[in-house]
Amino acid sequence: MADKNQQVYPIAPSANGHPRSDEESLVAKEEKRKKMIKWAGYIAAFTVFQVLVIVVFALVVMKVRTPKFRVGDGLQVKALTSEPSVPSFNMTLYAPIRVKNSNFGPYKYDATAVTFTYGGATVGQVAIPKGKASFKSTKKINAEVFLSSGSIPSGIPSGGNLGSDLNSGTLTLNSKGAMTGKVELMLIFKKKKAITMDCTMVINVSSKSVQSVQCQ
Ligand SMILES: *[C@@H]1O[C@H](CO)[C@@H](O)[C@H](O)[C@H]1NC(C)=O
Ligand SMILES: *[C@@H]1O[C@H](CO)[C@@H](O)[C@H](O)[C@H]1NC(C)=O
Known about the structure:
The chain is α+β, with helices and mostly antiparallel strands. The chain folds into 2 domains: 13-61; 68-215, Sandwich (Immunoglobulin-like). The protein has helices at 2-8, 20-61, 162-168, and strands spanning 68-71, 76-83, 88-101, 107-109, 112-118, 121-128, 131-133, 137-148, 170-185, 189-204, 209-215. The chain binds 2-acetamido-2-deoxy-beta-D-glucopyranose (2 copies). Residues 169-170, 204, 206-207 line the site of one 2-acetamido-2-deoxy-beta-D-glucopyranose (NAG).
């Protein structure tokens, strides 16, 4: 009987009861499965990394920041004559106008003008030609601007008291401007960005110097 059984099962069963060739393929299958789990892990880690890269890219690189348009700290009085009794003044300012672009791409702007006012009345203007503030940099427009109370067509503005301001020794001026342009990202994405300037300058008449410059 035992011999007959041997004939029915020509391949000797192994310790776990499976025929030898099946066991070998099982080991191979198990190895393949482990390899696949390992690769799935790699792919998952890589995907998470990619998502992080995209999120950082979107938040940092693709974010459109508003450029800053202002009169820089280097503002200087080059010439100043005043007559409190008239009252009137003539002044030449060296105005470092700045367009600060903190985007990861250039800001291309259209031609505009910066208007200087005293007591709400225009006393001078500077033309800003169209240009470009490069990737993370500041465009410097160094202008010389002539300001005169004689530029006010209606004479002395009601918004200030020029005679007493000149007597007290300080003149408060304002510079305003509006700029339109486009921020360019990755050479293809363009976003319109309009920016404004609103600066207040205090000029010391007796020392013919700039006491303060403040921009909003
Ligand atoms: C300002 O300039 C105008 C024109 O050049 C002149 O007539 C006027 O007297 C000047 N005023 C002062 C205070 O210098
Ligand atoms: C203008 O400048 C002079 C000299 O620096 C100074 O003595 C004077 O106090 C200043 N005037 C004002 C109104 O601050």
